[in-house]
Inverse folding.
């Protein structure tokens, strides 16, 4: 299998697996216990917290471990809304479902309303969005993802928010940086946000562990009650092995950022040069600053889901949208928010590269895609006749 769906999930690095194994076997203590086994587990969590904090240049005390990036997004939005009597939620129109669905539900509470921030055809916040953001005032919450999971488009949020002076107005800012981690250099303070979401399985760590990085000046209410774990913000006995794996993955992502980014950019360039040679293919937002590993494109004649299955039978794994909405057969909400016609949005595919992909795999993918397109078009022509 040639795996080209790394924005959905990544394969755990062997170093991460080896680091986790002792905490799945002999080092099984509860980190809240005071005996030797418990203290060893607590020390491992403390180390991992420092490692994850270093990935985004934050302080370890700002790291709240959660069960996923989705939970971190929920904690940021629900936790904030629960502690504020009223306000407005400003949400990007191309956000992950864990942000849009959560914001929709929170906007039903008395005193809260939701405003959608539109984007241009290139996926960047539009002038209309900036006008809406200019209305934001103290107590309001803004949530716009740093890098889009489907298109790879990078929002220049620190510059935009700085121009509008949102922090000076007392506006609280959250960003979903799940896809950006390990691909972009991240500095929590320099981004100009109060809360930031991460997920381990997007950076070759384990599934089932994420984190919310929080400026401690921002009060949020816990969404689960219990023993007061994670500074009282996320109760439940910690998943020590997963947290340790997250820490190990964060170290690897930080250390290899430059080298991996250079490799991925070279692979994406090769991929897109090949795609441009195939009639009927258009690369989405190709003139916009995007993640080095992500290429989303449309085809003239075949729906994305159909081609996905044809490629899957040929041993190639790609995506036709977000993995978190793959059960939904409607066109990508991200692409339609960018102004794309629904019929064209259904003919989109996403390739998301990883550190282990090779030039030979790109060549194989391009040749297979051309062959499958030719085969489909031939069958379609015969049916039409």
């Amino acid at each position: 299998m040639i795996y080209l769906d790394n924005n959905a999930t990544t394969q755990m690095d062997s170093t991460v697996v080896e680091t986790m194994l002792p905490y799945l076997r002999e080092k099984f203590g509860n980190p809240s216990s005071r005996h030797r086994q418990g203290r060893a587990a607590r020390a491992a969590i403390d180390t991992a917290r420092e490692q994850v904090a270093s990935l985004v240049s934050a302080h370890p005390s700002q790291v709240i471990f959660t069960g996923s990036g989705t939970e971190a997004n929920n904690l940021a939005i629900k936790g904030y809304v629960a502690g504020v009597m009223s306000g407005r939620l400003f949400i990007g129109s191309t956000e992950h479902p864990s942000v849009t669905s959560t914001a929709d539900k929170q906007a039903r509470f008395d005193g809260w309303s939701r405003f959608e921030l539109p984007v241009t055809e290139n996926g960047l916040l539009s002038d209309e969005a900036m006008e809406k953001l200019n209305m934001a005032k103290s107590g309001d919450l803004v949530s716009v993802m740093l890098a889009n999971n489907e298109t790879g488009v990078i929002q220049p949020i620190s510059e935009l928010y700085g121009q509008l002076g949102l922090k000076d107005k007392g506006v609280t800012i959250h960003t979903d940086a799940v896809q950006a981690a390990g691909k972009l250099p991240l500095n929590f303070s320099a981004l100009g946000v109060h809360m930031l979401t991460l997920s381990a399985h997007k950076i070759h760590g384990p599934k089932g562990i994420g984190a919310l990085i929080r400026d401690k000046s921002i009060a949020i209410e816990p969404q689960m009650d219990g023993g007061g774990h994670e500074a009282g913000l996320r109760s439940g006995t910690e998943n020590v092995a997963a947290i340790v794996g997250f820490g190990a993955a964060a170290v690897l992502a930080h250390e290899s950022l430059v080298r991996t980014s250079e490799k991925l950019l070279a692979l994406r360039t090769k991929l897109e040069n090949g795609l441009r040679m195939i009639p009927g293919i258009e690369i989405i937002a190709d003139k916009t600053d995007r993640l080095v590993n992500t290429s989303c494109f449309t085809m003239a004649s075949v729906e994305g889901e159909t081609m996905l299955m044809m490629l899957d039978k040929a041993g190639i794994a790609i995506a036709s949208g977000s993995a978190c909405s793959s059960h939904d057969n409607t066109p990508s909400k991200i692409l339609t928010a960018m102004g794309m016609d629904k019929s064209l949005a259904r003919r989109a595919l996403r390739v998301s590269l990883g550190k282990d992909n090779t030039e030979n795999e790109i060549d194989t993918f391009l040749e297979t895609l051309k062959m499958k397109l030719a085969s489909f078009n031939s069958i379609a022509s015969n049916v039409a006749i």
Q: What stands out?
A: The chain has two domains: 2-9+256-372, 14-254. The first strand starts at residue 2 and ends at 3. The chain has 14 helices and twelve strands. The radius of gyration is 22 Å.
